[in-house]
Amino acid sequence: MTVTRFAPSPTGHLHKGHAYAALKAWNFALEHNGRFLLRIEDIDFNRCEQAKTEQIFDDLAWLGLKWETPVRIQSQHLEDYHSAADKLRNDGLLYPCFCTRKDILREVEEAGRAPHGSEGPVYPGICRRLSQDEQEHRIASGEAHALRLDLEKALEKTGASMTWQDSLAGEQIARPEVLGDAIIVRKDIGTSYHLAVVVDDGLQEITDIVRGVDLFESTHLHVVLQRLLGLPTPNYHHHALLTDEKGERLAKRNQSITLKALRESGMSPAEVIGECHLRSCE
Ligand code: GLU
Question: pTM for this one?
Fold first, then answer.
């Protein structure tokens, strides 16, 4: 049975780009006689609001989408992410990182050049080199810290060759080094997008992940986390992003194109859906 999902973060109003992505996942489920789930990714409590979640429900229902209930709301399942992090930590695969953004940039500048991924410079490993004693001492003194994946150790555990299937890009060999020692548990929220999404896709038995190509790079890491947590790797369908007339990616900050605004201006769901199809490249 095909199971897919749309997983928005309630950090702003949905716009046409979200409508396009939601319709992609929805149509995939329909075409495969599968299940369609909606998941609210609201772990970043600094940026997410309950009112925005309600608005997401309204907007998607207005578009004609139907999803199974109860909807999984990530902020209600933090203990699932904590236990996944505990497992990785007990397996010796995470290390505490006390660096600020500034510390990292300074180190990268001093090194002259550093590989960059979609999340900025690949972490240069400053805290990986700390002794056990120093780690313990700094934690005991209450210094704020994130937990990073020790990618080298992780790959010793998983073996180097991991693949996933992307319906558009073909078979992919995982290259987690593009994100390096990624943050698995953020200082401020006690988990991370990467950990929560992998845990939830596993728990919800998602077979097919339909999402924008902006998350393609993250998949290299997600495949490693799935292996480490004993979860299956779903099939991926990374689609092109909907762009505006100038070919630029639609962004939440452009209020005029929110679904709410379109709806209030009298546009019908069929018109929005029609435009999404017209303007899509894939
Ligand atoms: N919550 C993520 C976002 O809004 C999407 C996560 C995913 O589809 O894997 O960008």
Answer: 0.94
